[in-house]
Amino acid sequence: MKRFALASLVGISLFSFPLYLGGCGEKIRPGGSEVSRPEVSGVVTIEVRPTSVTSSLEAAGTVKAKTISDVASRVMGTVTSIIVREGDRVKKGSLLITIDDSDIREKVRAAEAWRNEAGKALEGAKENLRLQNLTYERYKKLYEGKAISQQEFDTVETRRKGARLEYERAEEAVKRAGAGMNEAKIFHSYARVVSPVDGIVSEKKIEVGSMAAPGMPLIVIEDTSGFIFEANADERLSGTIKKGMALGVTVDSLSKTFEGRVAEVLPSVDPASRTFLVKISLRGAGLRSGQYGRVSFPVAQKTAILLPLPAIVSRGQLDGVFTVDDLGVVTYRLVRTGESYGDNIEILSGVDPGEKVIVEGVDKAVDGGVVKTPK
Fold this sequence. Notes:
alpha+beta
């Protein structure tokens, strides 16, 4: 019985044995037998060279709005209308919700009546003070002419001082009444819930007819003028990530990388996950709260072999490249890949520096073929 050994090791090909190449597309005679190889044209090769790159640690995170406002009620009452819906864009000061204000209106009317009453009392005190001033001036002349006694003059003077005090008290009462009326009007304005910022309504937490209470969140508004990407960095990066550092954040749903800057680094490390929180400010079209993203934190410089992504040919769950030897023979070789660096990917094993790899026209490459040399 004959036994056959199958070699599937990386870099081993059926055509890696010594061959005698007579020319592109010509017959090759290994061991005296003739083998016809297909010609391969329209491909571009590069020589593998080590490159200095920055190694990094990747962390996943979530995009969040720069400011998330929980708009709450400041008065108790029944919700009478909701003006906005989720997804609506609102401006600062825009009306969001109205609350039943019948009892508050009565308080405003009472405050206005108190102010009016205080105003009338002030007018009376003013007239009384004017009369007492006139009386004082007349009695003063009589006293100077020795027509009245000291006691009579003192009595008139005391009445004049009392009238002045009453007038001052009436003035203060008007001020208090005015402040009370303003307070009632401000309290009345709380029945109209307005947006504190420009943004988008992301959540509605109450329905018409429900009872609103002070401090109870009614609407959530997100300020979309800027975003924060929150990621948990490995504790090994503690002390290396600084505020203001530029980092690229890739949002998978948009298939796009945004340039951001570190806005905040929380110094404490979570003992459970051994990570610490990093906040990165972001701006760009298409960003929304809740989106998943990835950020790479630089660690150190290293030397690596990088190849363009189009050079990688996947077969099943295995990755490989087409190499070309000095005789022009094409060999499909399995490789192990590492980190991605833009449009390039790190090759951990499978090819060595100085070898040639097909990087363009890989769809035309044939394992065992011969690269046709232009004449």
